[in-house]
Amino acid sequence: MKTRLLHTLILLFGSILFSSFAYINYNTVNPFVVVLDAGHGGHDPGNIGNGYKESDIALNIVLKIGAELEKIPNIKVIYTRKKNVFVELFERGAIANRADADLFVSVHCDSHTSNAYGAGTFVLGLHGNKRNLEVAKKENEVILLEENYRENYAGYDPNSPESFIGLTLMQEEYLDQSIMLASLIQDNFIKKLKRKDRSVKQAGFIVLHQSYMPSVLVETGFLTNKAEGAYLNSKKGQREMANSISNAILLYQKNIELATIDTQINTNINIKSNDNERVTSGEKVYPGVTFKVQLAVGSKKLALKPYNFNGLSEISIYPEGKIFKYYYGNTSDYSKILSMREFAKKKGYPTCYVVAFRNGDKVKLSDVLKSEDK
Questions:
Q1: Is the pLDDT of residue 188 over 80?
Q2: Helices 175-191, 235-272: inter-axial angle, 10-degree rounding
């Protein structure tokens, strides 16, 4: 994964919080790589509610997304398919991994036995409820059309709920970034297109599990709903959905770049502040502020024991919605927390970073550093 994303984690729950992380080497020459995945294809038409073909609609939307993104300098678009062909799920993720992509976006259409309607966006995670499990199972069953699927997916059974438990581990490192992108997409669907909000959810999609970067799966609506199916099958509907998704991707990219630029500014501030009179004996204390190193984000609550954190002690947990964030360290000394961060990296957390708290509430690290360095 590119350095600028491995060391930049944006937290979004209701609003986008920009965090600034030290020592990021951001190279503006490198393109921002987006892999667009049109679900299904070839001998797998996807769902065919009301006679519409999910594979065709998903492809049309993806090609329109790509056409918009390709107008932007420094963005590189890669497609898992550009025509009506079948691409195995593990290969879709492999395409993104080989490209060292910054984002993976998979586009689909939903179906249901009821008259359900609305747009939803998924990130990888435990299914959470029966409906999310069913959506994931339905999309994952395509692997049964592949030859040697048992070998390709290590015995994964799309009909077994237990199979979903192991899917989240590789993607949890990018969960916050995936949620940010999903939230931006969903926000456009609801506010700009006035689609019914089926929200951002977690589910065990194989296609997301295969990719090692921030990844989302978009269910643009229900073909089984007469009105929504007609909308998604229309040029207008496909254009509007594509614009909503492409605009969200561009905003995501902008947020990432702004956070990275802010990081470089803060790095310079930190270097200059070494001559500040407040710094004595290698210490740089910020009264009223607590610094911690964020190690990981997960959907499971772990015992705060060293064996769960590669031998690290002084671990704390911070619940946020349905996920848990795990922190190492607890100090007001910024120099000390930087040392602890480097130690955590050596212990197996290469993408860990520093966060700040004031009066028990998380605050923007850059604001803390700037305010104290004035």
A1: yes
A2: 140
Kindly write down the DSSP assignment for every residue of 47-77, as one continuous string: --GGG--HHHHHHHHHHHHHHHHTTSTTEEE
With both helix axes pointing from N to C terminus, report the angle between 54-69 and 235-272 in degrees, rounded to the nearest 10.
50
pLDDT of 221 strictly over 90: yes
287 and 333 Cβ atoms separated by less than 8 Å? no
Tokens of 239: 């254009």
What pLDDT is attached to residue 54? 96
The candidate with the shortest Cα–Cα distance to 190, out of 181, 182, 199, is: 199
Q: Which amino acid is at 209?
A: H
Q: Is 194 left (phi over 0), alpha (psi -120 to 50) or beta?
A: left
Rounded Cα distance, 320 and 328, in Å: 17
List Cα–Cα distances, 72 to 34, 78, 341, in angstroms: 12, 14, 36
CA dist 312 to 40, 130, 170, 306, 318, Å? 44, 36, 20, 5, 17
Q: Which amino acid is at 194?
A: K
Beta-carbon neighbour count of residue 351 at 10 Å?
18
For the chain, what is the radius of gyration of the CA atoms?
22
Distance CA(216)–CA(203), nearest Å, equals 10
- The string of DSSP letters for 230-283 reads HHHHSHHHHHHHHHHHHHHHHHHHHHHHHHHHHHHHHHHHHHHGGGSTT-BTTB
Check residue 147 and give its pLDDT: 52
User: Beta strands 197-203 and 119-124: pairing type?
Assistant: parallel
Q: Is the pLDDT of residue 130 over 70?
A: no
Lowest mean pLDDT of 56-60, 98-102, 129-133, 328-332, name the range. Answer: 129-133
Closest CA to 18 of 228, 247, 236, 263: 263
Give 37's strand partners: 106
pTM value?
0.58
Instruction: Give the ranges where the chain is alpha helix by DSSP (H).
Output: 3-6, 54-69, 89-98, 130-140, 149-152, 175-191, 206-209, 226-233, 235-272, 334-346, 365-373
Residue 133, Ramachandran bin (φ over 0: left; ψ between -120 and 50: alpha; else beta): alpha
